[in-house]
Amino acid sequence: MVDTALHQAELWHEFHRVVNMSARELADWLRARSAGPDTERLPEQAGTPTGEQVLRILNKRRADLTPEDFQVMRRVIRWVHAERGRQGRALAGRAGWRHRLMSLGHDPLKPA
To answer: What is the DSSP string of 42-83?
Structure first.
């Protein structure tokens, strides 16, 4: 049990290191990204499914996380590390790459 709690604490810390946007910033981004010239989704349904999951996690306390939340956290950490490692600074100025990462809660142009 202690090992699991430690692992979850490390995962929580890494997730919040990788997801460098606040819940408010991510919510605003997902709404803006989902808005179109003809339609706008409901605010609580804005963004990608993973972005919505990240937003829900950001609004939770660690004690309230579910096993599904931990799976999402692991997946987001892997995706961001893979994108940053593979693309790195070469694509830092490209809007599409940055916007994909921002939809996961990571702004690559935000200071560390």
So the answer is: -GGG-S-HHHHHHHHHHTS-GGG--HHHHHHHHHHHHHHHHH
Cα separation of 88 and 17, whole Å? Answer: 17
Query: Model confidence over 50-107: pLDDT tens digits?
Result: 999 999 999 999 999 999 999 999 999 999 999 887 655 555 567 888 899 999 999 9
DSSP state for residue 37 in the 8-state scheme: S
Q: Please tell me the distance from the alpha carbon of residue 18 to that of residue 35, in angstroms, as a whole number.
A: 26
Domain boundaries defined on the chain: 2-102
CA distances from 48 to 32, 34, 44, 88 (A): 12, 8, 11, 23
d(CA 109, CA 91): 11
pTM, full prediction: 0.81
